[in-house]
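Query structure, 136 tokens:
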């Protein structure tokens, strides 16, 4: 099994990462860690790339320290619309499941129009949304 785990560094993506880690360990799954640098009308800067690399490294090291084999992890940085990139990466990488927080860095804005809602609506694979109050 392959799991796509989009991360943005928020508390919500950290919770989703714990769920993904638990599932990956139980089912010997491969986790694809994805960070999308959202297009904001400006070209992608070196500091954006460096920040994304550091964020992915923190998640990767944490998962390895929690017992996941390093060979069971892939990291990817993409640019563009987050929802579109999550869906596209899921298709390209042939994942069976996307696990993501129901809220992202923008916090508790209404779900309609959110990245998670767009992924849920348009994904061809199973999406597991981890709510902010989920206890692990």
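Result returned for the query:
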């Amino acid at each position: 099994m392959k799991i796509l785990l989009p991360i943005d560094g928020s508390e919500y993506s950290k919770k989703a990462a714990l769920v993904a880690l638990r599932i990956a360990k139980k089912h010997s799954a491969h986790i694809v860690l994805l960070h999308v640098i959202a297009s904001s009308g400006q070209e992608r800067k070196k500091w954006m790339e460096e920040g994304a690399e550091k964020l992915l490294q923190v998640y990767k090291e944490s998962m390895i320290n929690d017992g996941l084999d390093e060979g069971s992890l892939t990291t990817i940085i993409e640019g563009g619309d987050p929802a579109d990139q999550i869906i596209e990466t899921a298709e390209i990488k042939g994942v069976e499941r996307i696990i993501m927080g129901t809220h992202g860095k923008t916090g508790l804005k209404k779900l309609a129009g959110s990245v998670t809602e767009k992924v849920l609506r348009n994904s061809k694979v199973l999406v597991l949304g981890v709510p902010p109050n989920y206890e692990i």
